[in-house]
């Protein structure tokens, strides 16, 4: 929870007093941490996430109808973002069939299996956390802070990456580049 | 032994060397503590790692590494990291041998509800729906009752996690196997009787002649 978030960018959104944001993320971390800071600041209008159990503030604001929350199974969320970033029209998954997640969604029968048709997700901005970036914007991630970052970088119009370390071009071997620099629009370091 | 430890050590006995295993947040994570000697399994954390290891004197924390609940964690030599797309590919794609999850309710059809109580508690499903749908074996690890009320009931009235029938229910009172015929009582916890179990269970339990005492390895 809260892993792999671009904390400096989040702090800046709070400082600028952004409101009415739609956030797509796995979770909202916890109050006072990561995306939890945006929740605390009342910056969210809408949230698409898989888990808010560790952030009572998000749950409170959802029940008070201050934030409209769409809960999505985590694997489905990952694939919907991937579909959005890779030009696919949707995803077929057995996850959620026969549950409230299926409400209002078309299903498809293929080879005797039932699948939900899940739609792609795209965003205006992807705010990405990376371990290392070069000055082309090529990115490397680390351990469980990778999570949704590589898919999100493909699924947004404008990509802003925040890296713990920025190195000269050529320092990241081609085989170790995980997000290619040509899709990264802006780069900042994690520390001011 | 407290009830959580009893449940965790019994679940641990279900694991065999080489298994790829995912443990849910809370009680299921205790299973790592009770892994029998000589059993080597790979723990997957759905936030992107196979080879997760709890912190200890020998296992240091790493930056950018937590378990699925956000707690700092470590990893074994030979661990592998990947993104969420790949992680849930393992889960849905039939590569995960065992998932152990907590439960709010399980019913006579072996169906599980574990992700929300409408109007009261809405944590979200996280990875649970994918895990129950995709894992080869689903084990529910939970206390038998909640504030005295049975959690193993005729029909779930909370939103389901999946329509898939779970494979085993391990509680502080019993081990129960959902089958085509219904819920079969396999084991009873030490110092408990079959009557104790049925009295704490709303669902109908099928009682075979060879109900065993739950083995305790610790």
Automatic annotation (TrEMBL), chain B:
What Gene3D superfamilies does this protein's entry cite? Glutaconate Coenzyme A-transferase (3.40.1080.10)
What Pfam families does the record tag this protein with?
CoA_trans
Name the residues that span the membrane: none
Q: Which UniProt keywords apply?
A: Transferase
Q: Which GO terms describe its molecular function?
A: CoA-transferase activity
Known SUPFAM superfamilies for this protein? NagB/RpiA/CoA transferase-like
- Family affiliation: Belongs to the 3-oxoacid CoA-transferase subunit B family.
Name of the featured protein? Succinyl-CoA--3-ketoacid-CoA transferase
């Amino acid at each position: 929870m809260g892993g792999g978030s671009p904390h400096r960018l989040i702090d800046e959104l709070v400082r600028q007093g952004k409101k009415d944001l739609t956030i797509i993320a796995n979770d909202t971390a916890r109050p006072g941490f990561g995306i939890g800071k945006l929740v605390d600041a009342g910056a969210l209008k809408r949230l698409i996430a898989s888990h808010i159990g560790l952030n009572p503030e998000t749950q409170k604001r959802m029940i008070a109808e201050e934030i409209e929350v769409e809960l999505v199974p985590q694997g489905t969320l990952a694939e919907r973002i991937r579909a959005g970033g890779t030009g696919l029209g949707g995803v077929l998954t057995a996850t959620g069939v026969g549950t409230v997640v299926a409400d209002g969604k078309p299903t498809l029968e293929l080879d005797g299996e039932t699948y939900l048709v899940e739609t792609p997700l795209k965003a205006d901005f992807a705010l990405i956390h990376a371990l290392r970036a070069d000055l082309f914007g090529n990115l490397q991630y680390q351990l469980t802070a990778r999570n949704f970052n590589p898919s999100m970088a493909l699924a947004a119009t404008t990509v802003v990456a925040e890296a713990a370390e920025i190195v000269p071009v050529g320092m990241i071997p081609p085989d170790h580049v995980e997000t290619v620099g040509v899709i990264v629009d802006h780069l900042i370091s994690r520390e001011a | 032994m407290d009830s959580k430890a009893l449940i965790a050590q019994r679940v641990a006995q279900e694991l065999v060397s080489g298994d790829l295993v995912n443990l849910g947040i809370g009680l299921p994570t205790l299973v790592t503590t009770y892994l029998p000697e000589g059993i080597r399994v790979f723990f997957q954390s759905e936030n992107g790692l196979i080879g997760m290891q709890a912190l200890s004197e020998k296992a240091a924390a790493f930056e950018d590494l937590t378990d699925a609940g956000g707690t700092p964690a470590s990893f074994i030599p030979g661990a592998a990291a990947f993104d969420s797309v790949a992680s849930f590919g393992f889960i849905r794609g039939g590569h995960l041998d065992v998932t152990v999850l907590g439960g709010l309710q399980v019913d006579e059809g072996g169906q599980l509800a574990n992700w929300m109580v409408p109007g009261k508690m809405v944590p979200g499903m996280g990875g649970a729906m994918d895990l129950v749908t995709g894992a080869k074996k689903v084990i529910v690890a939970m206390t038998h009752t909640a504030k005295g009320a049975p959690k193993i009931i005729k029909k779930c009235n909370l939103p389901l996690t999946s329509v898939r029938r779970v494979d085993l229910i391990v509680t502080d009172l019993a081990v129960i196997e959902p089958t085509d015929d219904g819920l079969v009582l396999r084991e009873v916890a030490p110092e408990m009787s079959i009557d104790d179990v049925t009295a704490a269970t709303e669902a109908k339990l099928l009682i075979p002649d060879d109900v065993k005492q739950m083995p305790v390895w610790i």
